[in-house]
Amino acid sequence: MATTPQHQRSGDPTVARPPITALDPPLTPYALAGTALWAVVGLVSLAAAAPSAWVWTCLAGALIGVGLTIVGRLRERR
Questions:
Q1: How far apart are the first and last CA of the chain?
Q2: pTM of the complete model
Q3: Mean per-residue pLDDT, 66-78
Q4: Which of 48, 67, 69, 73 is the most buried (most CB within 10 A)?
Q5: pLDDT band at 73; cut points 50, 70, 90
Q6: Distance of CA 33 to the CA centre of its chain
Q7: What band does 35 get if pLDDT is binned at 50, 70 and 90?
Q8: What distance in Å separates the CA atoms of residue 70 and residue 47, rounded to the nearest whole number?
Q9: How far apart are CA 23 and CA 28, in angstroms?
C-alpha cells in the first residue's frame, strides 16, 4: 500500500510542499487601537493624580502609536 503525501511524515524531504508565505497583517488598526488605549489611560492617570512616571509612560506609548500608525499607512500605500 503506497502512502500519499498527506500521510507521510512531515520531516520527509521527498514530499513536495507549497512555499511558506509570510503573514503581513494590516498594521494601522492595531496601532490606532493601542494609541487610543494609551491616550485614555494617560488621561485617567492624569485626572487621578497618578505618579508622573505613569503619565510619561502613557505619553510615550501614545507617541509610539502615532509613529506606528504613520508607518503602517505608508506601508499600505506600497
A1: 51
A2: 0.62
A3: 81
A4: 69
A5: confident
A6: 11
A7: very high
A8: 28
A9: 15
| DSSP annotation string for 9-76 | -TT-TTS--PPP------SHHHHHHHHHHHHHHHHHHHHTT--HHHHHHHHHHHHHHHHHHHHHHHHH
- CB 45, CB 54: distance < 8 Å: yes
Grid coordinates of 66? 502615532
Give the helix/strand (H/E) hosting 77: helix 52-77
What is the C-alpha R_g of the chain? 23
Place of cell 497583517: 25
Cβ contacts of 40 within 8 Å, gap of 6 or more: none
CA-based torsion, 65, 71, 76, 77: positive or negative = positive
